[in-house]
Amino acid sequence: MSKLQKILAGIVAICVLFFGFVVVRLGAAPNDNSVKLKEISHENYAHLGKEAYKDAYPLEYKSFMKNNMGGESPTGYGGSDPGKSYIEMQPEIKENFKGYKFSVQYDVARGHTWAGVDQINSQRIGPQKGNCIVCKSSWMYDKWYKESGWDFASKPFAEATPPYTNKDTVEGTDLYFGCSSCHDPDTMELRVYQQGFVESMAMKGIDISKASHNEMRGYVCGQCHNEYYFMKEDGRVRHPFIGGYEPEEQFQWYQSGAAGGFTEDWIHPDSKTPMLKAQHPDFEIWTTSVHADAGVTCVDCHMPYMREDGQKYTSHWMTSPLKTAEESCLKCHDESKETLIARVKTIHDNNFKLQRVAGQTVAKAHLAVKAAMDAGATDNQLAGARLKLREAQWYWDWVAAENGNGFHNPDKCMRVSGEAIDLAHQVIEEANALVKGSL
């Protein structure tokens, strides 16, 4: 055999070994025991908690418990440190939510694992009912709803809350937010258990049971991360996105009487305006975003695929994507991590500045209406200004209450903050004109 023939034979042998290895790897079962279905104990409702899944799904469980950690996001916004108060960071909140629970305590939300601790110890509980626990635990569906439908929604908070052994620890509130909040505990398939979301989507003509897997990757988060209200008739959860995903459409939903007996959350003591409180409309803001248009869901960014010891798993550390930028962002974005973080920070900076201006202008509008009242303006004269004030605060709050600080849909959030500023200025002008006696 010539030298050339030996070289060619060697190359052929290497190729055979290499491609043979590839074929074997492709044909072999994935080295990922963590995703095989395991039986979870139902004793004492353990399947509705977190601890029961520890040994069955160790990688997912370990990453989920990272939600216990605090710390700010890489851009300096958000984060999950205990006791970090929006009221201290944005003093205008005191005036805008005057007379309502959110002027007493409004802290930055901690990780999902703290849901039980933070709700049970909240200064806002007061006269709350079982409906306010709907998104804090699937206990409200797997226990109460399956037994008696929406009856739990009108139960006092203390009667409806899931059992706990220690109200100050994650371990002691195990039956609050856990694996069953997003997965069927028997099949581990993604599920939407929050029946208010299911019913509201049905009213939009969307059957959740027919959703694709990728749609479910948005719905499992969207079932709780959205704007909602409690129906006055029976306390059940309902969502104004039935009328549309835009804040203007949702405001009209409330104005039209479509919300039934629910008309306002409280009457502002200064301006005597019937107010609406927005609740984290993350789903609505994302739904019309460029990411949603591209089929990118909450899970893709906040729960990326990770690897540990050769095993691939879905991270359950639902945190800022910038903390896992390589897996969350750079799989799609062809730029450096530093450039990407800088771009997101610019969006956060601009959104927060405009949001603050909106909130401060709304606060001035409340005081302007109060001054007009003190000067003798009648309810009839102030009706138009109050309606605009109600709408202005709704738009400001719709952006301020959202968890992405504008990033989930920058153009929409900037537009809505601008609308809040414009309406609030109109209120101030009208109220000042009444004080001067020109109307």
UniProtKB/TrEMBL annotation:
SUPFAM superfamilies: Multiheme cytochromes
Catalysis: reaction(s): 6 Fe(III)-[cytochrome c] + NH4(+) + 2 H2O = 6 Fe(II)-[cytochrome c] + nitrite + 8 H(+)
Enzyme category, top tier: oxidoreductase
GO BP term, pick one: anaerobic electron transport chain
Entries under CDD domains matching the protein: NrfA-like
Compartments where located: Cell envelope
Protein name in UniProt: nitrite reductase (cytochrome; ammonia-forming)
Keywords from the UniProt entry: Calcium, Heme, Iron, Membrane, Metal-binding, Oxidoreductase, Signal, Transmembrane, Transmembrane helix
Keyword Hydrolase recorded: no
Any single Gene Ontology cellular-component annotation: outer membrane-bounded periplasmic space
Family stated for the protein in its record: Belongs to the cytochrome c-552 family.
Molecular function terms from GO: heme binding; metal ion binding; nitrite reductase (cytochrome, ammonia-forming) activity
EC number(s) reported in the record: 1.7.2.2
Keyword Signal set for record: yes
Record field: transmembrane: 7-28
InterPro entries in the record: Cyt_c552 (IPR003321), Multihaem_cyt_sf (IPR036280)
